[in-house]
Amino acid sequence: MTDVLIVGAGPTGLVLAADLARRGVDALLVERAAGLFPGSRGKGLQPRTQEVLYDLGVLDAIRAAGSEYPTMRVWEGDVPGQEWDIMERAEPSEQVPFPDGWLIPQARTQEVLYARLRELGGEVRFGAGLTGLTQDGAGVTAELDDGSTVRARYTVAADGGRSTVRGLLGIGMTGETVDPKPMLVADVRVTDDAPVPDTHWHVWPKAPEGAVAFCPLPSPDGGRVFQLIAQYTDESARPDTTPAAVAELLAARTVLAEEHVAEVLWASDFRARAALADRFRSGRVFLAGDAAHVHSPAGGQGLNTSVQDAYNLSWKLAAVLAGAPESLLDTYEEERIPVAAGILGVSTRIHRSETPVRRGGELRQLGIGYRESALTVETRTDLPEDALRAGDRAPDGRPGGIRLFDAFRGPHWTLLAVGTGSAAPPALDGASVRTVTVPAYGAYGTGVFLVRPDGYVGWAGESAEGAVEYLARAGIVAGG
């Protein structure tokens, strides 16, 4: 018996499990594989995701295990050519402390999240894949291939693009093949004398049989490890992922020789697809991450969107398990489907672009918000066009010497009174809602803002009048 069964211990499942653990929710995370995913696949964390990980208490470890993105070097055979920066870099500011993407292999991200989950008292049951699923009005019964049966009040499918749970539910996916040509991705350790400096992300756009990208990865043992992405011009090609074949490919298409390949740590092949699940909820079962949306790797959006699915859902599950109305869970699908659909369009556009697209702007995901959500209430009128509104990301800052991201940090709501001269109603200052009073501040102007546990403004007003009623309707506090 458990409150929440999470299927799949990738970034989505680990973030969800860790956040539920710090909220005191009994959750079981199961994973079919014998251990964590070993490869680099999703290697970039966007600024908004870094803010989520700061709130979860793991960003220092993530930063220590990663690095800034290197500049790119374009090659023709064994001749190095133009160098350029794929990143639109920005300086940190009070409102946006983490403005650029951060390079870290997916395996390292998962190791950090797993350590945080265990620190919070959680665990992963490895070697336990889901084989059967039924649900009724009170919960879900899941059958696992280790022979056990689990009864849970809710289940979350975080089991990837080929989701078993989604298949058992009969939920379809609407999408398209972004590129019919196959691709190969691998993590390759090279020798010290390999003629590719770690200071650059190396690209062979005109390589025979298909372009190659070779990106240096932060390695915990200090070794020279690169992520290889190889495209194939032949749609009927079948990428060979054996170590010998990967070394041969590098020798045929790049400046490297086979003897420069010391070890192939992991390899896989894929075709770029874009697909969106027809719905993200079926009764007491939810889809999150790749189980709900599959992206082209272009632009580094898939893992980041998945992490934010988990963060949107976790606090809502915890609130409903604590007594909030079941209707709160409807807002997960309402809020996340439009976001996922929009990001799928961005990834597909970048993949199909005939000219390189610099990474910045909308790829940072800082502009994502929920202004149209049923959870969003804006009571102020005649606001300037650029004003912060209910539904928007709540910016960081240090008004009156108080760091806002630290005030928001944790599983609570925050009632933030900015330049109003008075604090919020005393009834709201407790475990579920904390009140913070600061002077007027440019990013917020003046007003009162209810900041959700996932860092978005849920309600905004000229004063705190109406805040208690809003939270009561959401089931966060009693009364109203």
Automatic annotation (TrEMBL):
Its cofactor is FAD. This is FAD-dependent monooxygenase. It holds the Pfam family FAD_binding_3. Residues 2-343 form the FAD-binding domain. GO terms for molecular function: FAD binding; oxidoreductase activity, acting on paired donors, with incorporation or reduction of molecular oxygen, NAD(P)H as one donor, and incorporation of one atom of oxygen. Keywords: FAD, Flavoprotein, Monooxygenase, Oxidoreductase. Signal peptide: none annotated.
